[in-house]
Design brief:
Distance between the termini: 16 Å
Mean pLDDT: 93
Helix content: 25-40%
Shape: elongated
Strand content: 15-25%
């Protein structure tokens, strides 16, 4: 992934006009993600206003572009890191190790040791063996136990792979103490792209019950990590970021009570709307005279940044120079020689009937989970380029 700065002489404004003007005045010879770092800052302030006393731990995995991390460090953000590489990035750009949590529940022992020696003291776990690794390589560290979320109304649920159930979680708190660790609380994730704050309520009801059970069992919990889930606009209505965050915090307070320390880990909600991908149409075709829908092939696909079209969960917004022309449904696919590289087929997208090869296609609100999902060089196609303005 290439990250480069664009020279912007105009005064910085955190709105779409600056981003649109840059894209309109620039030629791109390959698919490129353009990011407006000022818009990331605006979103940070908006979320912080709603989250109040909760610490924002930006989910670095959403977009680790150096200008984004540098700006967030300057703003006083904290960080959620999933790997040694993300920790090294944050530290290199000035983050205080005490503001970084190692939030992946699946860590290499050597990476735990690296993080501990670098000054990071807060780790996640959801299994006995993970606690044993932390105890060996980060003795005395603070740990929070990740709870499984079985009730999710998110567009991209995160059930099954992460977390543990109530009985296991409470047992792990005790086991952490036996190992000499400091079990400080719980974490969870209601699912990525939870479009309305009210959608958190069923999950929070179940999770708060575990919290109160643990407290009743004598565990001194004082940290609650509410994870991510903060949404971006992909065509369906979402609440304004400050209102959304404030409403989530109200629900958390109502259900968990007065928690000493709360962490939140926005990723998508922080950076998605700061980015637009500039691509082009490569081909419009039909498989037969009987084919109901056109096939539209783009210069970017599932393996070059649009992995979140898996299951058609994330519905990106497309713009073309022909959007004033009559529209019609189409199946969308990427350029690779892999039959899985189909973006939208179950629910075809509406694109201009006049669309043809060579037309520029903008993919809106793609600042999150695109550049990091882009393959190195699948089929010889270059990885998604990144320009920060």
């Amino acid at each position: 992934m290439t990250v480069r700065f664009a020279d912007a002489a105009a005064a910085r404004r955190a709105d779409s006009t600056r981003l649109d003007n840059f894209v309109a005045s620039t030629m791109f010879d390959k698919p490129t993600l353009v990011l407006d770092v000022d818009r990331v800052e605006t979103q940070y302030h908006a979320l912080k206003a709603g989250l109040g006393r909760a610490d924002i731990h930006y989910a670095v995995k959403a977009n680790p572009a150096r200008p984004i991390i540098e700006r967030l460090v300057a703003l006083g953000s904290h960080f959620d890191a999933a790997s040694r590489g993300e920790i090294e990035l944050c530290l290199a750009l000035g983050a205080d190790p005490q503001t970084i949590s190692f939030g992946n529940t699946i860590k290499r022992p050597s990476d735990i040791a690296f993080a501990w020696n670098a000054g990071i003291t807060l780790f996640s776990a959801d299994a006995d063996e993970e606690l044993e690794k932390i105890a060996e390589h980060a003795p005395g560290a603070q740990v929070y136990i990740r709870l499984i979320v079985e009730i999710s109304q998110a567009d991209w649920p995160l059930t099954r792979k992460f977390g543990c159930d109530a009985d296991t979680a409470i047992r792990l708190l005790g086991y952490a103490k036996e190992l000499g660790l400091d079990p400080v609380g719980f974490s969870f994730h209601v699912g990525s792209q939870t479009r309305k704050a009210e959608m958190w309520a069923p999950a929070l009801d179940a999770l708060a019950e575990i919290w109160h059970q643990a407290k009743a069992a004598g565990h001194d919990l004082h940290l609650l990590n509410i994870g991510g889930g903060f949404p971006a606009f992909y065509g369906e209505a979402i609440e304004a970021p400050t209102d959304y965050a404030r409403n989530v915090m109200t629900l958390v307070t109502d259900k968990f009570g007065d928690v000493a320390r709360i962490m939140a880990e926005p990723g998508r909600g922080m950076v998605a709307e700061a980015g637009v991908i500039v691509a082009e149409c490569l081909l419009v075709s039909r498989k037969s005279d009987r084919d109901v829908h056109r096939w539209v092939y783009l210069s970017i696909g599932r393996f070059s940044g649009l992995a979140e079209t898996e299951g058609e969960a994330i519905r990106y917004q497309f713009e073309t120079p022909r959007d004033d022309d009559p529209m019609g449904p189409c199946i969308m696919a990427g350029p690779s020689c892999d039959s899985a590289d189909v973006l939208y087929e179950k629910r075809p997208m509406q694109l201009p009937l006049t669309l043809k090869a060579g037309d520029r296609v903008l993919i809106r609100n793609t600042g999150a989970y695109t550049s990091t999902y882009s393959s190195v060089c699948f089929n010889g196609f270059p990885p998604l380029d990144v320009v920060c303005i």
